[in-house]
Amino acid sequence: MVSIFLLSVIVFYIARLAPGDPLVSYYGERAEKMTAGERAWAEEKLGLHESITVQYGKWLGRAVRGDFGISYKYKMDVLEVIEGRVGNTLLLGGVGFVLIFVLALLLGIWCAWNEERLIDRAICKIGTVTSCIPEFWLSLVLILIFAVELKVLPSSGAYTIGKENDLGDRILHLILPMTVVVLGHLWYYAYLIRNKLLEEVRTDYVLLAKSKGVTGKSVMYRHCVRNIIPTYLSIMAISVPHILGGTYIIETVFSYPGIGTLSYESARYQDYNLLMVICLLSGALVILCNMIAQTINERIDPRMKGPDLTEDAEVIMR
């Protein structure tokens, strides 16, 4: 809770000190034609006439009660605006995360099994190249090839107008952004799995098992892979915000109606209330994923729980 509070303070002050006019977001072009009196009335209506500290105090008081205000741009409750977009981001980021998790594991195992062979070296080089390509550039290239030249896939949106409930249409709109999400992160985790497996293969217990006649495939899948899975789970838990954060850029390029596009619009139009909630949700996600990773690490290695204060107190009493 302390982290969320500090994040809210930082975002609130930075957003209001940044250049821009939030009245333009709320009133559009009419804000530029307002007289001084009309502008003062409009600022008072939105609570922008008071000092930043007073504004934050009032915002915090309402937020504690679950009232995060209205979006200046959409003239709707902030939570309603986010509710209409969060499902798209969860679909893109969630499915992308699962694909990255599974494909990276399989690819890492395949490369480790074929260490230093032609297929391993080729995959390592291709993976290194693809992981270095900026996501926004890869997005534009895919749009140019598959949407502009070949015209086989849509270039933007989450669905075609009038086909909101068409599953096939939604899948078509997901293919390009999902490809960028997966390619942007796949090799990093696959390479991690490969290296972890190669370290595990060279440990003493594996050499002992092989000397006793246990097949290499059995050792790889029944022992090595099982031993690295907990570590891989903890790393992937920490990586959830990183992968979802990458979808924000991709959503903007593909005009995909998700939280990423919404965060860009809220920052661009000084939509303070909307920007605050998006930043707090992102921060809460980071904290939650770190807690999950810490829990997994503690299950793997109980020493990471820290000192047992009860035992220390008993020692002192003695």
Question: What are the key terms here?
Answer:
single chain, 318 residues, 13 helices, 75% helix, 0% strand, elongated
Description:
With 318 residues, the protein is mostly helical. The protein has helices at residues 2-17, 22-27, 36-46, 52-64, 78-113, 118-131, 135-149, 167-201, 204-211, 216-253, 259-268, 272-300, 309-317. The radius of gyration is 25 Å and the shape is elongated. The model is unreliable at 309-318 (pLDDT under 50).
| Main beta-sheet strand count, sense and barrel state | none
Q: Tell me the number of helical segments per DSSP (H or I, 4 or more residues long).
A: 13
Class from helix and strand fractions: mainly alpha
Q: What share of residues are in beta strands?
A: under 5%
Low-confidence stretches: 309-318
Mean pLDDT: 83
Oligomer: single chain
Radius of gyration: 25 Å
Helix content: over 70%
Shape: elongated
What is the string of SSEs from the N terminus onward?
HHHHHHHHHHHHH
Separation of the first and last Cα atoms? 37 Å
Topology, number of strands:
0
